[in-house]
């Protein structure tokens, strides 16, 4: 695989300290000029609202400065000057890690008092030399940044975390001093050995899940893990709605058949057209019944078949809410599995993809003109545009829409 064909997948998972309502860690990732992706993890001192506000301020400033190519030393000094300092410990109220990577693999990492990042290559931890960059003295205390610059290879992963990960389990057997970065590295290596192609989203979730287990199900600190995965892009096509004329039904089915990647069909009418043209059977999966979302179906050659507008509308809510911030809610804690309805399965497939093509039929579906349907039920093309916007802005995906 050539470097030019690579894609930067970024995702994270986090959980707030037991007894708090917000997380004092903030993870932010955004695209920058030059095919770059800038990711920042900030850990506000303490927990709760104050920590969250200071961490949010840190991530916003850091992402803006690095995206604008401001000198890293100067950017760090501005952040340090802006943040208040704890009177007792004489340290800044937020620590941070910044990862700046472009599509050719050129990578810079700046660290300030967070746990060290982990670079994984070929299923093993790779050590990278770091440069200690002195900053101006703040409150009579010499401050240093750790700076790394290197090229990642296709398949490499960079894992960053807040101290809630290595310190999980502290004071509890069998690790009274905490899980520790060495054991975190061992866990990551074992996960990659079992599942070499694991997504950034799932790997981050597993790290936080294991840290929560170390804390016996009650997080003793804000816990965040972010993963940057440099790899070949994963492609998915979502087909929804019948073509504008019946003469183009065969074209719709042919595009589905010829697409190289995962294929999703949303809509009973659309599924019926493709099944008829490809001489396939559609079978409803009655094992996935849900009170809010119609059940999915199965069809040979198609990875997922769902109902149309209701499922897509629920998908918007998932992408904007439950799955938008990487938060591990109560339903995701040990013993509380995710609801596996059709909308959640659809969201999972899209978040595990990088380049998503939407093939949208423009024939009016008579079922959607029913005045008894919910007011928020949008027409197909509008909800697809909304999904694309959410995927691009919040999840850094590449999307394309073609109407047929």
From TrEMBL:
One annotated GO molecular function: phosphatase activity
Record domain PPM-type phosphatase: where: 7-230
Keyword annotations of the record: Hydrolase
Tagged with keyword Hydrolase: yes
InterPro entries the UniProt entry points to: Bact_Sigma-Reg, PPM-type-like_dom_sf, PPM-type_phosphatase-like_dom
Domain of life per record: Bacteria
Designated name of the protein: Stage II sporulation protein E
